[in-house]
Structure formats: C-alpha cells, structure tokens
C-alpha cells in the first residue's frame, strides 16, 4: 500500500543513516540493529493527510468529533456510543471476544490508535478512510442500530451551533422522518425510500460530516513510546546494544521476533504492521456465520457509497490511488484478515478477528503449530520453537506496551455539560 510503502521507505532511510555500514546479514548484530531502528516509533512518519476529509486536521472538527464519539444519543436505544466498544481506558477497545452494541457482532473490536496511517479499515478492509469506517457501525443493526435521519436530527437539536461553525448551515430537516435510512430496519428503510432524492442527500451530507468529525478526533489517538522504543533509541545513540533497558529474556525474544520466528514479515515498520491482509489459519468461532475475511470486502470497498472516489469524498480522483493499487479479489484472500499493530498488544486480549484466543501464549502456540486454515490456504509454516523460546517471544511482545499518546482531554469522556445541549429548533 502507498502509505505503508512511504513509511517503510522513511524507515529504510533512517536505518541507513543510523547504521553507517553496508548491508546487514540476517542473524547478525548489524541486522538486529537495523531491525530495531526500523521498528522504533521514532521512525514513524508524520501523520499523512486525508484528502477525502477536508476537516481532518481542523481542531474544531476534532472537538466536535470527541463529543460525538461519546454521545449515546447516536444509537437506536440511547445507550450505545463509539466509546462503548472503543474504551479509552482499554486502549480504545473493549476486552471481549465479540463487540456488543445494540446486539452482538460477529467480530472483535479493533483498536483506534494509529488507524490514520492505515489505508483500509476493519478486519476485512472494507472501508478506506477513518470517516467512512465511523459511519458503518452507526447504521449497523447490531452496533449503534440507528439511521442517518435520526442522527441528523440529533445534530440539529443538540449540536447545531458547533456543527455550523465547522461545516456550515444545517439543512432544513422539516418533514424528515425521525428514523430513515438505507438500513435493515424495514420501517426506516421504507421511510427513506419515500423521501425525495434532494432530502436524502441533505440528510446524508449531515451523516457524512458526523463521520468526518469523528475521524478528525480519532486522528489524535496514537501509540505512546514503549520500553522497546527506548531500547532502540539507546542502541542508535551509542551504537551498542543496551543491556539495562530490556532483560535477557526480552532481548532473546527480540532476536526471535526479527529472526527465527519471522514475525517481521507482517509485523514490520514503526507500527508493527504492514497494514495488509493474511490468512493465518485462525479457527472458526463456533456459532458464528461463515466469515470469508478480505475476499468479499475487495469488491465492497470499490463500490462503497463513501469511498475516496465517492461524491461524499473531498479528494480529487488522483488522490485516491490506494483504490487503483487494490489487489483484485482472489482465492488468496479467502479468510485473510488485517494484520493488527502489535503495539500495546499485551493489553488487548482476547486476540484475532473473533477473539478466538484468550492469551498471547495461545496465539504464539497457534503460530508455532501452524494448523491448516478452515477455508482458503494458511500462509503459516510451523516455527518449531521450544517452550522457552515461546516464553521469550512473549516477554519481548510485552515490551511494546507504551499506552496511548493523545491530548489529555481526548483520553476521557467529555463532561455531561459538554455534550450537545438541546438547542432552540429552527426546523
């Protein structure tokens, strides 16, 4: 992907500048140094722009998005907000196998941190921007469960002044049903289909701007510096592998991570992810419908109502090159899922797309055994690591915990009085 390639290029330049030496042979101290520097958060490129969201870096939009992120009125039953699953005190996830909103979903909640660097969102990559991703759960029957007309009314009633400060005048919502949208609820869908196209467009414009405000907030949620980053920085500064920051077991785990275990094939770069999709033979979770992962999502993102080339995007067509370089759907994408960042991984059990593994030890044992995939073809090969090596690898992964880096106000729920108050209606 373009963003990932730029990140890798920046990392490669940083490593070359730091090493002052020739090519690094795998298994050597020189190679380990290169790997440590390339994985350090100090090598993370500046936050990439999002041309599809002209308000992505607008402070007022971020402030509005922060409040919307925590507002339970953006749900069918008034009890679900984005923060219900993306809890700030849990690394912006929920710590349970399957996310629960208005109902129970079929997948694990993904963390928010660092997603501004990702070209495709969700476990299957069916959305290509943070704002498009934010809109999906709002109209999902088992997540927020509401409709775009409902949300437009919430904005008009409770956030009109702040909305208009960022996005301009609210449309006239007189005559717009309380619940209407292209959703699974028959009544809301029927109400939507009866609305004239101009009215549907006006409502959708407000709905889109809700997503863009939430995305402006989420861009501030990044990973903090970890012990591993201090280890890499000290190694770069002195030219000698430090012994006092990571213990012997953790250093041995790092050697395995970038050597024998081959983890950096997918978990590379400063965010410890290549942002791609792989079938790693993860078992099905009993009781869930068939989940084919990336395969159907390729067509989905190309035809998505809110993709980078949609009429709701602020980007020029030539600024949406990720869609041009999208790998075509193929058998290789059967049950392929997004490679998550390993930063803060020790704080994010359970693991995998449906919470199939309760602990890191279970995940590592799965990779060590490399069982056949329930569908498609697993890319794994048995690692044949000993029990001691698996413990060392887990010890290293625990050094990647560095918390969340964001403005303090964005790491907590707004005070109740900061949530939009009922405004005088001008509808």
SSE topology:
Elements: H1 2-19, H2 29-39, H3 59-69, H4 82-85, H5 130-139, H6 148-158, H7 160-167, H8 186-194, H9 197-218, E1 222-223, H10 227-238, H11 248-257, E2 277-278, H12 294-302, H13 321-324, E3 337-338, H14 360-369, H15 387-397, E4 404-405
Helix pairs in contact: 1-2, 2-10, 3-9, 5-9, 6-9, 11-15, 14-15
Please, could you describe this protein's structure?
With about 425 residues, this protein is an all-alpha fold. It has a domain at about 60-120 and about 130-220: Cytochrome c-like domain (Cytochrome Bc1 Complex, Chain D, domain 2, Orthogonal Bundle), CATH 1.10.760. Helix content is about 35%, strand content about 0%. The chain is built from 15 helices and 4 strands. The chain has helices spanning about 1-20, 30-40, 60-70, 80-85, 130-140, 150-160, 160-165, 185-195, 195-220, 225-240, 250-255, 295-300, 320-325, 360-370, 385-395, and strands at about 220-225, 275-280, 335-340, 405. The protein has a two-stranded antiparallel ribbon. A two-stranded antiparallel ribbon has the order 2-3.
Q: Sketch the topology as an H/E string, one letter per element.
A: HHHHHHHHHEHHEHHEHHE
Question: What separation lies between the terminal Cα atoms?
Answer: 45 Å
According to CATH, the fold-level topology of one domain is: Cytochrome Bc1 Complex, Chain D, domain 2
Strand portion: under 5%
Q: Write down the overall geometry.
A: globular
CATH class of one domain: Mainly Alpha
Number of helices: 15
Radius of gyration: 23 Å
Please, what is the CATH homologous superfamily of one domain? Cytochrome c-like domain
Strand order of the largest sheet: 1-4
Please estimate the helix content: 25-40%
CATH architecture of one domain: Orthogonal Bundle
Main sheet attributes: strand count, strand direction, barrel closure: 2 strands, antiparallel
Low-confidence stretches: 1-21, 422-427
Class from secondary-structure proportions: mainly alpha
Give me the oligomer status.
Answer: single chain
Overall residue-averaged pLDDT value: 93
Number of strands: 4
């Amino acid at each position: 992907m373009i963003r990932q390639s730029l990140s890798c290029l920046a990392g490669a330049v940083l490593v070359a500048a730091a090493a002052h030496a020739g090519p690094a042979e795998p298994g050597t101290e020189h190679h380990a140094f290169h790997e440590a520097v390339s994985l350090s958060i100090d090598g993370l490129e500046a936050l990439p722009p999002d041309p599809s969201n002209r308000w992505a870096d607008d402070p007022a939009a971020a402030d509005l998005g922060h409040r919307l992120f925590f507002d339970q009125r953006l749900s069918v039953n008034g009890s679900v907000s984005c923060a219900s699953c993306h809890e700030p005190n849990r690394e912006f996830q929920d710590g349970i196998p399957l996310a629960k909103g208005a109902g129970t979903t079929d997948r694990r909640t993904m963390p928010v941190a660092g997603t501004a660097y990702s070209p495709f969102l969700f476990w299957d990559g069916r959305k290509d921007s943070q704002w498009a991703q934010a809109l999906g759960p709002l109209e999902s029957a088992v997540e927020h469960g509401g409709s775009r007309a409902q949300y437009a009314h919430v904005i008009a009633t409770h956030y009109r002044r702040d909305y208009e400060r960022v996005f301009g005048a609210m449309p006239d919502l007189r005559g717009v049903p309380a619940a209407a949208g292209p959703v699974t609820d028959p009544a809301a869908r029927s109400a939507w289909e009866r609305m004239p196209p101009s009215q549907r467009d006006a409502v959708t414009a407000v709905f889109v701007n809700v997503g863009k405000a939430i995305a402006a907030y989420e861009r501030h949620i990044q990973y903090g510096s970890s012990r591993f980053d201090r280890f890499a920085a000290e190694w770069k500064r002195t030219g000698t592998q430090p012994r006092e920051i990571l213990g012997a077991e953790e250093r041995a785990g790092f050697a395995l991570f970038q050597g024998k275990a081959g983890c950096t094939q997918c978990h590379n770069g400063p965010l410890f992810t290549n942002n791609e999709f792989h079938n790693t033979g993860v078992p099905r979770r009993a009781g869930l419908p068939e989940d084919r992962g990336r395969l159907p999502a390729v067509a989905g993102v190309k035809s998505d109502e809110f993709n980078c080339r949609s009429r709701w995007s602020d980007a020029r067509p030539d600024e949406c090159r990720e869609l041009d370089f999208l790998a075509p759907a193929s058998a290789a994408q059967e049950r392929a899922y997004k490679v998550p960042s390993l930063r803060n991984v020790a704080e994010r059990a359970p693991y995998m797309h449906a919470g199939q593994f309760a602990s890191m030890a279970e995940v590592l044992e799965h990779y060590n055994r490399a069982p056949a995939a329930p569908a498609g073809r697993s890319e794994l090969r048995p690692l044949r690591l000993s029990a001691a090596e698996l413990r060392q690898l887990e010890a290293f992964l625990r050094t990647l915990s560095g918390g969340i880096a964001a403005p303090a106000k964005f790491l907590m729920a707004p005070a109740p009085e900061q949530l939009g108050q009922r405004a005088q209606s001008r509808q």
